[in-house]
Automatic annotation (TrEMBL):
GO terms for molecular function: DNA binding; DNA-binding transcription factor activity. The keyword Transcription regulation applies. It comes from the Bacteria. Pfam families: GntR, UTRA. InterPro entries: Bact_HTH_transcr_reg (IPR050679), Chorismate_lyase_/UTRA_dom_sf (IPR028978), Tscrpt_reg_HTH_GntR (IPR000524), UTRA (IPR011663), WH-like_DNA-bd_sf (IPR036388), WH_DNA-bd_sf (IPR036390). The keyword Transcription applies. One of its GO terms (biological process) is negative regulation of DNA-templated transcription. This is GntR family transcriptional regulator.
Amino acid sequence: MTQEAIYVRIMADLQKRIDAEQFSALKLPDERSLALEYGVSRSSIKRAVSGLVGQGIIFKKRGSGTFVNPLYLKNKSMFRSVGSNLGVSDSFRHHGETPAIHLLSAQVHEADEETRMALFLEPGEEVWEVQRLRTLGNTYFMIENALIPVKLIPLASKEDFKYSMFHYAEKATKKSVSKSFVTVTVEPSNEFDQQMLDLNVNEPVGIMAGIYFLDDGTPFEYGTMRVHYKYMHYNSFISMDGE
């Protein structure tokens, strides 16, 4: 098993144990004890712990140890997790419902200059351009537009985009989509927004535009989500300790 797979496996297992509230007083064992328990190196444990800290699931208190974030236990859906961490299916929930996907189009074409800059592509390289609708029950609440380098998912077909792209990326690349740079804005809805999201002419739409990265730093997707304002709830975990 590769070093990458080891730390990802440990992160997933620790999160399952956290979800099951197996750690007394919300305190995790120290890194040396975890290394012995899992039979791996301290560096693998350190990387797994750092990953969970970065997601806001646990935090380190100097001189005291590593603890589960109690806010995570209260509202797990707003915190990221390995693999599906940044995906719409895990981030947007309403009354317990999980969003479904309706694929509008998926086609391959040469990346334009803006896309090449965002995804660090060379002239002539191709991208998948995907447009999808997200639904909760019978309600469309989001229009999703994504550009993904073909070279990262060379075996993908149009059918694959009917499901989670981030889950597919994890299987295809053996890496997780774990980082993003996202800009959140609001603007007047256009005719397509109004038609698809059942908005009135004077109603706004939320915009979440950004670049999503694999955990090795490779840009995976350059995309935009246009969200019905009633579903535009944005949560963020911000680390202030500089670690």
